[in-house]
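Please review the protein record below. Let me know how this chain folds according to its tokens.
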Amino acid sequence: MDYHIDTKCIQEGYKPTKGEPREVPIIQSTTFKYDTSEEMGKLFDLEATGYFYTRLQNPTNDYVAEKINALEGGAAAMLTSSGQAANFFALFNICESGDHFIASSSIYGGTYNLFNITMKKMGIDCTFVDQELSLEELAKFVKPNTKAVFGETITNPTVNVLDIEKFATFAHDHGIPLIIDNTFATPINCRPFEWGADIVTHSTTKYMDGHGAAVGGAIVDSGNFDWEKNRDKFPGLTTPDESYHGITYTEKFGKGAYITKATVQLMRDLGSIQSPQHAFYLSLGLESLHLRMKRHTESALKVAKYLESHEEVAWVNFPELESHPSNELAKKYCPQGTCGVLNFGIKGGRERSIKFMDSLKLAS
């Protein structure tokens, strides 16, 4: 049965049976016990499912990842130590030295630096594009080694809404996946898979956690992108991994190939796992996400309208305002509301703006 998303916020993920704790248990353990070396060997060789080292997987994390997976409508999901880690893993899972990807130029500054500086040092190049370009204009930036397209549902902090459907068409026309950071909208206000996105990332630190208690990230795979159809572009998924005795992820794990590789290969080697304690805090936050997002968006719109009418305000940027250039896209992709972030300018320039910020009492 496919429950309403409000119900999923509370009921999906961890499903206790008779005698088990009602709340998600915190499995605060680095390792897990088995009775025979044969059992352990099968786990190490990916011939059996289970847990053996929390650097790769932990039951608490998987319960919470499955809830996020259900909210987004994906095939598989995983938690990471931060949103930055999620975006890095999402791309590094299919890119290697010598590869290239395309990203919107309007993305979060931290992600921009990750792509433009750190990943460039690893030999992975990124071309940043104006997300308002047409399909024909975007196509000019595709190279033979282009492996993905990346954007944000609602850009941070400029709060422009991405035309997901257009970017999905663009990516798929060139045999590559569309990766969408859905942090600002959350699956409550937008589910990018419904518009053609293939992979979704989150900084769960923001709205999903909701209490400023736990840094974290998440990656969700729709399971819809056909890696085998484009196998020459993605050898990491479609050719044998010698570190696991020659298994091929797409052959062995099907729709779970992408998340499995990110878990057993990238987490094994890079170790950006979210702690079970933080995953537990995230689980608590997710239970009220549907209620909080409604209030966030309602409050932001009221503030935006007030500021737009204020004589001391030069401009207001919020996609639900009729005056915003993304307003039609906001209605299309986020009909219930966008997010709680807006930005605006104070008349009088930088000096007056700083004075205003330093005078804030409730928001700081």
Remarks:
- Residues 51 and 146 are 35 Å apart (CA to CA).
- Residues 5-284 form a domain with the Aspartate Aminotransferase; domain 2 fold (CATH 3.40.640.10).
- The chain has a mean pLDDT of 97.
- The chain is about 40% helix and 10% strand.
